[in-house]
Amino acid sequence: MKLPHFSRKTLCIPYGVFLLFFVVVPMLVILFYAFTDDAMHPSFENFVKFFSDPTKLSTIVYSLVIALVTTVVALLIAYPVAYILARSRIKRKYVILMLFVLPMWINFVLRVNAIRELFNLLTQVEAFEGLANANYFKTIFGMVYDFLPFMILPLYTTMTKIDNSLYEASADLGGSAFTTFTRVTLPLSMPGIMSGVTMVFLPSMTNYVVSDMLGNAKVTIIGKFIYTYFGNDWHMGSMIALILLIVVFLSTWLTGGFKADENVRGANL
Amino acid sequence: MNMKRVLSILLSGCLLLPTLGILSGCGGEKVTVLKVYNWEEYIDDGGEGSYVYDMLLDEGKDPDADDAPPIIEDFEKWYEQVYHEKVKVSYSTFGTNEDMYNELKLGNVYDLLCPSEYMIMKLANETKEDGTPYLEKYDKSFFDPSIETNYYIRNVSPYIREKFETNAGLNTPEGEPRWSEYAAGYMWGTTGYVFNPDKVKAEDLEQLGWQVFIDPAYKGKLTAKDNVRDTYFAALGVTFEEQLKALRTQYTDGTLPQKEYTEAITKIFNATNEEAIAKVEPKLMEIKDNIYSFETDTGKADMVNGTIWLNYAWSGDAVYAIDEAELGETDDDGNTVPGTELFLDYFVPDTGTNLFFDGWVMMSDVVERGTKQAAQAFVNYMSMPESAKRNSYYIGYTSVIAGENNEMLDYVDWLYGGEENEEDFYDLSYFFGEEAGTVGIYADEEQRTCRQLFAQFPPEEVISRCAVMDYYRKDASERINELWSRVKAETLDAWAIIVICLVVVAIALFTVFVKFGGKIDFFRTKPKKGYRKVDP
Predict the structure, then answer these.
(1) CA A171 vs CA A158, B24, B157: distances in Å
(2) Cβ of A124 and B526 within 8 Å?
(3) What is the residue extent of each domain of chain B?
């Protein structure tokens, strides 16, 4: 029997169609809405409005700061974990790795809700009363908790790939533990860091479920802003979405997210 | 102009492709598909805890969840019996009026919608992109009480109908269609606070009125709604309380007739001009600082676990929260653990609050789709006293239905009635359109003044100080949305924005330089090409 033969081109068609309808067309629609007014005439009004409104600019800044803090904290927690996991000789390390990844299998709204309830419980203790209004702290806590696995996984995969002989070489040449870390481990885990940072930084700018539930909706990040505007003014909403898209694009480009470097293999989940 | 429509059809077409095969497979008898678009959790869904189920329990039977089918299934059966045609209800839900409006704007078509009054006004005033109106008026015969199946007109509370008309007259400028012609009522209610009487005294609330929102004694212990409509309304109350109070005094003195009084407060609670917004903005900021959270659905839980003392809520949600808190925790045998119950109360500010209606409206597409008869039948079915009881019992809101023979009175009595003491009489004559003092139930003082009965059927005096929301006209809408984003987001000083932008640009330039200049080797350890390939 002759097996049907699909060329590479034909195999690309399903994904191509998907891309066209769910990526390209929606982007074009956003672009179209961003630069039109209510009567659907071309207009730069929203563009001007965005950059002349301190509230909107501030929200972008706040989102950037929240995302930055989230990323740094997540990195500080995830790096040692990934390092220990990758370097240790524990048998069954995948069990430990699994423990970190396991929360991803539970719906994240449920998890955020659970954290909310935990905070509520904590605030009933006098010492933690201040938590009730620590909206920014709670938001960042929730974001870090939510995105931690996305930081650990790429770091772990890159670090397991670092050849043990490199460490030995460093030691043989008289490198201290610190030198080994700064000269061997850190540079070689850079692709993992970049990949993890991209995967945490970008979504934490828009994940308004966390800021609504843990920040008591008093913390407004850019994602929530877009959502609110789409409630009544699609054109402004599209403009904000477009600007966010540009910010995202620029930061991905600058951190080298588009590079097809083979060393990154396995780190880009 | 038609871009949106074409795009949305294309997109939804893609999604629907797989179902086409299934649909074309079944032919035979013609089935009318009635597309109903209603609020989430806003209709009887049968099963445990529904009215039918609890009535069976009451009769001492041991019902099964299947014995209490969702009301929609019952409607489909009833329709086939009465009209000898098959109907299939395709039921979907929305979370906010604005979400619903967006769906319609996208070109989605439904037969029946259940928006709130201000959204009905907006829809009645607007047309689709092709110029056809959004809404279709009910048939003249729909309002003829002599036809047996016209349950809506036969059972609706005359008081509510009259409120519809007066408000439609009040909120409709010359030349705009009156929204009452398009709508048949479904549920109604007020907004107020649910409060924890252990922590908050009713007298204090009476003293404070709307000012409770900015009172430091309640800092971090109350919530506002996370939508501009309700919170802006509350902020108007806070800002113009003095004026509202003065009007109230005039009204109680008898110097200001009801009609003028309602007109005056409606105007205050619907102020959207720049002057009003400028006054409200600082108050909204104060509210934001004072409240615990902006919420849409977490308020009930926060009330029950004691995080907050006051929750700004719609009366139906209030009833639900009061019920839930009262149930307390149950042990393994299903008995309530004593001491876990919480007895919450409901309060309406003296200076006036919001009166809302959610009503059924038909989209103009019913004519083309041939579903007008089924749509009107659906509204009529939902207006039978029995259906009204079922829905109301399930969701906690108050039905607009009174019943031809005041059937709803028995229901209210069954729920909240107490011993027949002369002084415990709770007058509901206004709702049933009877002479004052003739129709009512006997209920204990708590129910009459602050609990579920008070929330579901407020005394006429409460309604006399209520204002109905108007919809925001075009420019007002923009002003208010901008105000809302200023309130929700933090605004930095201009210099801070400039400094941060400069820092960001500097970082970006630095990164670009590192990437492409290659002169600064950050870790100074980057091995030469060839050494990095560590993979075997």
Answers:
(1) 21, 74, 88
(2) no
(3) 29-186+358-393, 188-356+417-488
A213 interfaces chain B, CB cutoff of 8 Å: yes
| Distance (Å) from the alpha carbon of B256 to chain A's nearest alpha carbon | 38
Query: What does pTM read for this prediction?
Result: 0.84
Q: Is B220 on the interface with A (CB under 8 A)?
A: yes
3-class state of residue B295 by DSSP? strand
Among B7, B494, B525, whose Cβ lies nearest the Cβ of A183?
B525
Taking CB atoms and an 8 Å limit, are A132 and B535 in contact across chains? no
User: SS3 of A118, please?
Assistant: helix
Indicate the number of domains in chain A. Answer: 1
Class of domain B188-356+417-488 (CATH, top level): alpha beta
Residue B88 has phi, psi (to 5 degrees) of -125, 125
Minimal Cα–Cα distance from A99 to chain B, Å?
27
How far apart, in whole angstroms, are the C-alpha atoms of residue A162 and residue A164? 6
Q: Is B95 on the interface with A (CB under 8 A)?
A: no
The answer to whether B293 faces chain A, any CB pair under 8 Å, is: yes
Which H/E stretch holds residue B205? helix B202-208
Q: How far apart are CA B155 and CA A177, in angstroms?
A: 84
Q: Tell me which residue of B124, B294, B313, B308 sits closest to B226, measured CA to CA.
A: B294
* Domain annotation covers residue A43: no
Residue A124 lies in a domain: yes
From first to last of the 269 residues of chain A, give the pLDDT tens digit.
677 787 888 888 899 999 999 999 999 999 999 999 888 889 898 999 898 888 898 998 899 899 999 999 999 999 999 998 888 877 777 888 888 888 888 888 899 999 998 998 888 888 888 888 889 999 999 999 999 999 999 999 999 988 889 988 998 998 888 998 888 899 999 989 988 998 899 889 889 999 999 998 899 999 998 988 887 788 999 999 999 999 888 877 777 655 555 444 444 44
The continuous run of DSSP H or E covering B346 comes out as strand B345-347
Instruction: Classify residue A135: in a domain, yes or no.
Output: yes
CA distance B446 to chain A (A): 29
CB B501 within 8 A of CB B508: no
> Which of A24, A50, A55, A225 has the highest number of chain B CBs within 10 A, making it the mutation to test binding with B?
A55
Q: If you write DSSP's letter for every residue of B89-144 in order, what string do you get?
A: EEEEEESSHHHHHHHHHTT---SEE--BHHHHHHHHH-B-TTS-BSEEPPPGGGG-
Calpha distance B431→B411 (Å, rounded): 14
Cβ-based neighbours of B181, under 8 Å, separated by 6 or more: B124, B137, B138, B168
Partner-chain residue, chosen from B14, B477, B526, that has the shortest CB–CB distance to A232:
B477
Answer yes or no: are the C-beta atoms of B351 and B209 closer than 8 Å. Answer: yes
- Give the minimum alpha-carbon distance from A57 to chain B in angstroms, rounded to a whole number: 7
CATH fold for domain B29-186+358-393:
D-Maltodextrin-Binding Protein; domain 2 (3.40.190)
The alpha-carbon radius of gyration of chain B (Å, integer) is 27
Is B29-186+358-393's fold the same as B188-356+417-488's?
Answer: yes
Cβ-in-10-Å burial (0-12, 13-18, 19+) of B131 comes to exposed
**Within an 8 Å CB–CB cutoff, is residue B504 touching chain A?**
yes
Report yes or no: A174 at the B interface, CB cutoff 8 Å. no
Evaluate whether B187 touches B358 at the Cβ level (below 8 Å).
yes
Distance CA A44, CA A34 (A): 8
Q: In which domain, by residue range, is A184 found? A: 48-264
Structure token pair of residue B382:
């939902």
Helices (H), chain A: 8-19, 25-34, 45-52, 54-87, 93-101, 108-123, 135-160, 164-172, 177-180, 186-206, 208-213, 222-230, 234-254
Contact B492 A57 (CB under 8 A): yes
